[in-house]
Amino acid sequence: MILAGGLSTRLYPLTKQVPKPLVPVAGVPNAVHLINYLKAYGYDEIAINVHYLADTICTTLGDGARFGAKLTYLHEAQLMGSAGAVKAMQSFFGDETFVVVGCDDLTDLPLDALMAEHQRHAALATIGLVIRPEVEHYGVVVLGDDGRIAGFQEKPARGTERSKLVNTGIYAFSPDIFAHIPDAEFYDFGKQVFPELLASGARFFGYDARDAYWCDIGTPGEYRRASEDVVNGIFRIPGTRGSGADASASIDASAQIDANVWIGPHARIGAHVRIAGPAVVGEGVQLAEGAQIERSILWTGATVGAGATVRDSVVGIGYAVAPDARLNGAVVANEPLA
Known about the structure:
Elements: E1 2-3, E2 24-25, E3 28-29, H1 30-40, E4 45-50, H2 54-61, E5 70-75, H3 81-88, H4 90-93, E6 98-102, E7 105-107, H5 111-120, E8 125-131, E9 139-143, E10 149-154, E11 165-173, H6 189-200, E12 204-208, E13 214-216, H7 220-231, E14 244-245, E15 250-251, E16 256-258, E17 261-263, E18 268-269, E19 274-276, E20 279-281, E21 286-287, E22 292-294, E23 297-298, E24 303-304, E25 309-311, E26 314-315, E27 320-321, E28 326-328, E29 331-332
Parallel strand pairs: 1-6, 4-5, 8-12, 14-17, 15-18, 16-19, 17-20, 18-21, 19-22, 20-23, 21-24, 22-25, 23-26, 24-27, 25-28, 26-29
Antiparallel strand pairs: 2-3, 6-11, 7-13, 8-11, 9-10
């Protein structure tokens, strides 16, 4: 299951028109990356909960057939929390062990190894973990010698952390987990289910995937980091071009492109434009004469006027940067129509 029901407020204003599952990484909605990621490990029947801008998600992803998967939607009239949404899909999972991922995960964490550890321990729940050198923005997990989860710290102050392992939001569950989630009630894995499993001494384990890549794209800073990692080739998404220009893009001979840049279909790069990577220029973006783009992400249909500079910024879908404007460290997007 892909958890995708949240309101995406951490990415405002970008997600006032584009729900978080459809936030593009290298020009492709992250939900599509996740579907392909799950498929690579044999998971081609995938549930996804939707609430915020649900119709947009359903229209974009459809039934999953064009991705070689079958999607089953849970439409939440009211948000039920991460565990509550999974509980609502209990009949979908039946009596099989299953995995849950968040729609803001960009990762190559090996699900086969996660599941193998889960089964080896006859676990009720297993959390995928990665190492982070700085953990004050994450949920920290403390493991015992046998791999059991021994404790949690939520966003510990620097220097107080008991571990460098952080919770990725990628989980393996045995069907008995449903006995720990009440029916038709808002319930959260991190705040309710996991502390209760820990307190009860349940078979609750962590899988240390320290060498895996993982990024939570749910904040502007981490979203930019993930995009830069893809463009720079630090993280390669199978089947996705990491940098270079689409064949349909129009690039003036006088334009200057420095370092790694991803340029999407039908983009138009005008005379004397300079793009300094890592940067992403989305589908149909138009950069007028003399525009300067540095280490920024421009979503589909954005325009940058003549002589404007966009530096260390994210520009939302269809947004127009005025001629000679200066954006530095900005996140800008159009407001939804009333």
